[in-house]
Specification:
Elements (H helix, E strand, L loop, with lengths): L3 H4 L2 E3 L4 E5 L6 E4 L9 H14 L1 E4 L6 H9 L22 E4 H4 L8 H8 L7 E2 L11 E8 L7 E5 H6 L3 H8 L2 E5 L12 H8 L3 E5 L1 E3 L6 E3 L6 E4 L4 H15 L5 E4 L6 E5 L3 E4 L12 E7 L13 E4 L7
Parallel strand pairs: 3-4
Antiparallel strand pairs: 1-2, 2-3, 4-15, 5-17, 6-16, 7-15, 7-17, 8-14, 8-16, 9-10, 9-13, 10-18, 11-12
Bound molecules: fe (ii) ion.
Length: 324
């Protein structure tokens, strides 16, 4: 790990890039690089170092197309190929998943998008998640590229889970170090009376894993408070009541404003985040606005998390390492 002073707000002469942190604990904008141009190894190394230090890095005014997006991702790892993608995704690029909010989600499960969101929102911090966190091997990173964005609304926010862990008191860190929690797709969903297509969808493709509550980052060695508001169901070996109260406190810690950064998208913006060390908040302020928002996502395959005790996560149902 480089020190803050070595990476913060300074240009790297070898790579020609400049890394400008945008918040105290997380987020940096990288300038001086055209992602559509074949990147040389010094640029890739500079981006990787900034990503590990700042957890999410931003690029603006890029002109990546689908092949360029995939080629950029390949410099940092192996892109995930999903067996099922949304209907807006480009058929010729299986690594790319496209979300076009208004086109895709309205009516998907026989209900309006707003109702579906409402039924899923069982806690106020529900939207905070890491991508595919119920899998036994969640993606290492996500590279999200904006094509069309609303003139206002639709920002994304990330939080640094290494900083959140470091900010806990020593006795509490010691307590959570040894715990594990079940992460499950569809936690807390409130079904519709009668037939509910989303419940059938969830039963069809259940995914759950037992993850350490504190994972050790495979590249930086940092301890990560591995919680989110979307998948975490229950801390193992604790009563329902104990688990609920402790999870609420840990999630509040994980999303404290000082550990977060918020990004205003423009067409051509790219955000590249470490999905092992962060959670992010899907925008909740644009569903009622009548603006299109089209985003393209490539994820990089990741390791099975490992706890402080060296024990890896275990699959519970519907997930195995490397099988998507
Ligand atoms: Fe996400």
């Amino acid at each position: 790990m480089t020190t803050d002073r070595a990476t913060a707000g300074r240009s790297d002469e070898a790579s020609g890039t400049e890394v400008k942190p945008v918040a105290g604990h997380i987020g940096a904008e990288i300038t001086g690089v055209d992602l559509a141009d074949g990147l040389d190894d010094t640029v890739v190394a500079a981006i990787r170092a900034a990503l590990l230090r700042w957890k999410v890095v931003f690029f603006r005014g890029q002109r990546l197309d689908h092949p360029g997006h995939v080629a950029f991702a390949r410099r940092f790892g192996e892109p995930v190929v999903l067996r099922k993608r949304g209907s807006a995704s480009p058929p010729d690029f299986p690594e790319i998943e496209t979300t076009a909010d208004r086109l895709e989600l309205g009516g998907r499960f026989g209900m309006e998008h707003d109702e579906w969101l409402r039924r899923r929102r069982h806690t106020l911090l529900r939207g905070w998640h890491c991508d595919h966190g119920a899998r036994v091997d969640p993606p290492a990173a996500t590279i999200l590229r904006a094509e069309t964005v609303p003139p206002y609304g639709g920002d994304t926010t990330w939080s640094n889970l290494a900083a959140a862990y470091a900010g806990l008191s020593a006795p509490l860190r010691e307590f959570v170090d040894g715990l594990r929690a079940e992460h499950r797709l569809g936690v807390g969903y409130q079904p519709r009376p009668g037939d509910d297509a989303y419940v059938r969808h969830l039963l069809d493709r259940q995914v759950a894993s037992l993850h350490p509550l504190v994972r050790v980052h495979p590249e930086t060695g940092e301890r990560i408070l591995y919680v989110n508001g979307y998948y975490v169901e229950q801390i193992a070996d604790l009563s329902r009541a104990e688990s609920g109260a402790i999870l609420e406190m840990l999630l509040e810690q994980a999303t404290r404003p000082e550990y977060t950064v918020r990004f205003r998208w423009e067409p051509g913006s790219v955000a590249f985040w470490d999905n092992r060390a962060t959670i992010h908040l899907a925008p909740g302020d644009n569903a009622h606005l009548d603006f299109p928002r089209t985003m393209h996502r490539v994820m990089l395959t990741g390791d099975v998390p490992v706890g402080v005790d060296g024990k890896p996560s275990e699959p519970v149902t519907g997930t195995e390492p490397g099988r998507w």
